[in-house]
Amino acid sequence: MLSRAVSSSLASLLGSRFASFSPVGEKLYAVAKGRDPNQPEFLQAVEEVIKSLEPVFKRDARYATIFERLLEPERVIQFRVPWVDDKGVERVNRGFRVQYNSAIGPYKGGLRLASHVNLSVIKFLGFEQIFKNSLTTLPMGGGKGGSDFDPHGKSDVEVMRFCQSFMTELYRHIGPNTDVPAGDIGVGKREVGYLFGQYKRIVNAFEGVLTGKALEFGGSLIRPEATGYGAVYFASEMMKSVGKGLKGMKVAVSGAGNVAQYAVEKLLDENAIPVTMGDTSGHIYEPEGITREQLAEVMHLVNVERKKLDSFKGLSKKGVYTPGLKTRVWVHKCDIAMPCATQNEIEKEHAIMLRDNGCFAVVEGANMPSTNEAVDVYQEAGMMYGLGKAANAGGVAVSGLEMSQNSMRYSWTRDEVDQKLRSIMHTIHKNAYDTASEWGFPGNLQIGANIAGFLKVAHAMEVQGTV
Ligand SMILES: NC(=O)C1=CN([C@@H]2O[C@H](COP(=O)(O)OP(=O)(O)OC[C@H]3O[C@@H](n4cnc5c(N)ncnc54)[C@H](O)[C@@H]3O)[C@@H](O)[C@H]2O)C=CC1
Ligand SMILES: O=C(O)CCC(=O)C(=O)O
């Protein structure tokens, strides 16, 4: 245990929020911060998990030791990605794959292509993925990768050249029983296709090394829809737990990409009223609800024309488009907020706006979309909080089902996969809910999900020895 003097000097070194850790939590956070002081997103994710795991560390100090081991990724791969643009100019990007934890299965997690990608971002995502994958009930470890290459504004051929170069290094580190990447921001069917083609060409084997593949070469039905649908199934479980339903609920959704599109589609199926969608160009607000026709236009614009919402033509008379990111979707009155765009898109001021406007639940389709200060606002206000690790686990869960289908050389029907997804989201919610109650925090899905996700991995790590 740290002395009071050491602990207070560490507190001033690490910032005021640090003061609320127990001495064990302080020590673990200090280990992470001491090793990687310049990785803010990673440290934010670590802080959030440590706070939830305090009761576990208190009950049995063994778990703190295991957690300290888990904090360090098993392997971090960083590499050069050279490619040639359409003008014949040589370009270089930086590629990453963080193979974070393989205690319960092969590393599994997406690849992100976006200019903001750096090691801190990939490490936070890989760290989160460990707990999320554990919650899915499927045997998948945690990993994440990507590059600071931004596919927006690049031609298809430029994206292909980049993906081929990226895979020319990555292929030696992955495999269907080792590490199975998939999509994330900036990586959809097109990019997964180019990556798969290059892998197959190099290793001369047709194997399930990526998920999110097109149906023609081993993809699973419902994988494109899975994260958005899964988040809405999770929201529905949250509502049921307090005797409510989604019908008639006004939902503010951020994002206009994969997760947001299918969240809006499923909200419409459930007779909820999605009132917003947003991207880096701005956002649309439809006070009476986004219609299926408007959603179809967004899908065409984003997925086919590769444009942003500033090109959206279908606003209703009451609809409003607000350009830029200064004003976010969270200014609009809603019952439920579903952030489905990116990390830290809800800061404390936005959480306060949501709370003051009567929003009573936040369900995260994105990874770590709320800052820790925003989460404090939700918890202090008694708002329901479905954290990303639980609420957006449907995507990776169906990726796990894609791996199973590839292994069996078989394909389940759309209904079969959708039923399995629903059942997995039900189980994740129940596990988080029950675990929260068992540990003395009834209704706190954040604590419940983090503890349940951690304990499974911790037990596997313990019996596998110090590896
Ligand atoms: N695709 C998947 O299966 C899964 C995705 N996620 C998470 O969901 C989130 C969205 O991912 P996808 O929809 O797959 O990506 P995407 O690339 O299809 O869409 C991302 C959307 O967010 C918007 N966006 C990005 N940065 C923004 C910013 N700073 N402010 C406002 N809008 C911004 C983009 O313009 C785009 O509309 C990410 O946090 C991702 O990690 C989580 C689980 C699985
Ligand atoms: O489907 C996958 O393997 C990855 C999904 C993902 O990146 C995520 O859950 O954040």
TrEMBL record:
Catalytic site residues? 144
Locate the Glutamate/phenylalanine/leucine/valine/L-tryptophan dehydrogenase C-terminal domain: which residues? Answer: 220-465
Give the residue range of the signal peptide.
none
Q: Where is this site: Important for catalysis?
A: 184
Query: Record's InterPro entries?
Result: Aminoacid_DH-like_N_sf, Glu/Leu/Phe/Val/Trp_DH, Glu/Leu/Phe/Val/Trp_DH_C, Glu/Leu/Phe/Val/Trp_DH_dimer, Glu/Leu/Phe/Val_DH_AS, Glu_DH, Glu_Leu_Phe_Val_DH, NAD(P)-bd_dom_sf
Q: Which residues bind substrate?
A: 108, 129, 132, 183, 399
SMART domains cross-referenced by the UniProt entry = ELFV_dehydrog
GO BP terms in the entry = glutamate biosynthetic process
Domain of life the protein comes from: Eukaryota
Sorted alphabetically, the Gene Ontology cellular component annotations on this record are:
cytosol
In the record, what terms sit under GO molecular function? glutamate dehydrogenase (NADP+) activity; nucleotide binding
| Family as reported in the entry's similarity comment | Belongs to the Glu/Leu/Phe/Val dehydrogenases family.
Q: Which NCBIfam families match?
A: PRK09414.1
Task: Supply the PANTHER family for this chain.
Answer: NADP-SPECIFIC GLUTAMATE DEHYDROGENASE 1-RELATED
Please report the name of this protein according to its UniProt entry.
Answer: Glutamate dehydrogenase
Look up and give the organism this protein is from: Stygiella incarcerata
- Name the encoding gene, please: GDH
